[in-house]
Amino acid sequence: MQTEGRPLKKPCVRCLLSELDEDEIRAGLLEYIRNVPADRRVSGEIYQSRLAQCRSCERLLDGMCLECGCYVEIRALRPEADCASAVKRWHSAI
Ligand code: SF4
Hints:
The protein has 94 residues and is an alpha+beta fold. The chain has helices at residues 22-35, 44-55, 72-75; strands spanning 2-3, 6-7, 60-61, 64-65. It folds into two domains: 1-35, no CATH class; 38-94, no CATH class. The longest helix has 14 residues, at 22-35.
């Protein structure tokens, strides 16, 4: 894995967030999102619609949903996922 020309260190699977480099965490998450196969992600239109709902939600903080602890850009990719709130702002696509 590389980001902006510099190789990423192999991710530590047993490290805590406090022990990891923030830039590498972010780069790793974005790489993960890019590599989710087409058959395991919603369309770009649905994805952007879901993220628009998250962006306007008071439960979004630093890219994470305070209801479930997910990174919303990962949660919103999954066709079977829905908004984590009791009052759903977006719904499953299947
Ligand atoms: S998943 Fe739902 S509750 Fe969580 S940030 Fe997005 S809109 Fe808000």
